[in-house]
Amino acid sequence: MIQALQNDQIPGCSPSSQGFFALVRDHTIDGTFSDPYYGGNRDFVGWDMLQYPGIRLSASETDVRQGSALSPSHQSAYDNATYTKMATNTVTGRGGNQNA
To answer: Quick one: which of 32, 16, 21, 34 has its CA closest to 77?
Structure first.
């Protein structure tokens, strides 16, 4: 089914099943790897898959030495006071535009 979507072989999708596949694929990637502030990447699973340790507002000598072995911070950029938050998002409990 997925390959048929990708190859534009499913009738009834407008403008094309290939376009629909591309849209779903893009949204899946965005939701898996974006900052959890935006509602995806629940429990930081996307970042953990990539072994991305999360944001660091500073890096000590120890952090630099640890390199890829640095343990994950599991923090959104918006969990830090450095970043401003807009109105609280009722879905995620974090700031931001809930209509975005």
So the answer is: 34
